[in-house]
């Protein structure tokens, strides 16, 4: 079996290189010939061949570890099976789409306000909308840029005045506002789902930040999630049609609350914490799916 591991041309940190090596190693262990290609290199190949891959160059599958959605759609148009699929990556990459896809499914999510699309950076939201968000969500509330990773574009908003300032600062960038889950302050759990099962989980906690992300200085420890958490994570992945994902769940006062679903979850921290290598499970899932 031959596959491509598609990664981003402009992501070259050791953190990501290590992750890609884990995936390549797991593929080699299963006897799969996998070739790592950057999104730029694949676009170049498609352009040279007039956007139609030659039969001899076609892989059996693509492990798409990037968020170049247009490329993912183009490869699917070529008839290639992507892990994860293009639409699943797109739905997870935009937090507002994730919320809307899961809304009404029975999965508990924080009360959420989605920003209207803006065409001019200096266009102000009507006061009525800002007041509506404040009345609906209360303070403090959480603002998340729709396109962001590792908790870097997540902000705690304490007052209506700060909310107005932050809305102006956002300009044309889309965002969501969510009710703050106080019971989960500085802690959450990451569940790694592959196929239809949770293969490992870790508890993340941070005494100095409302965000629990390890990148923001949080700590981690092995965690045994409840059956309700497992069911929530697996159901979310099923609805989003994900082959694998990292699902972040908050500790709500009345039970677990879904925070985010990450289609390209960085699982090296999970491996360091639990000893479970998600790359091995992902490759085995691909093999099983391609039979």
Q: What report would you give on this structure?
A:
The chain has 291 residues and is of the alpha+beta class. It has three domains: 2-84, Rossmann fold (3-Layer(aba) Sandwich); 91-107 and 183-290, D-amino Acid Aminotransferase, Chain A, domain 1, CATH 3.30.470; 112-180, Dna Ligase, domain 1, CATH 3.30.1490. The protein is 36% helix and 25% strand. The protein has ten helices and 13 strands. Strands 11-10-9-12-13 form a five-stranded antiparallel beta sheet, sandwiched between helices. It has a four-stranded parallel beta sheet with strand order 2-1-3-4. A hairpin with a 2-residue loop joins β12 (244-252) and β13 (255-262). α1 (14-29) crosses α10 and α3 (69-77) runs antiparallel to α4 (86-93). The protein is globular and about 60 Å long. The mean pLDDT is 92.
**Domain module count:** 3
- Just give the CATH class of the largest domain: Alpha Beta
Question: What is the name of the CATH superfamily of the largest domain?
Answer: ATP-grasp fold, B domain
> Structural class, judged by helices and strands?
alpha+beta
CATH architecture of the largest domain: 2-Layer Sandwich
Question: How do the helices and strands follow one another from N- to C-terminus?
Answer: EHEHEHEHHEHEEHEEEEHEEHH
Instruction: Briefly note the CATH topology name of the largest domain.
Output: D-amino Acid Aminotransferase, Chain A, domain 1
Q: Note the main sheet.
A: 5 strands, antiparallel
What is the helical fraction, as a range of percent? 25-40%
Q: List the total number of helices.
A: 10
How much beta, percentage-wise?
Answer: 25-35%
- Rg, please? 20 Å
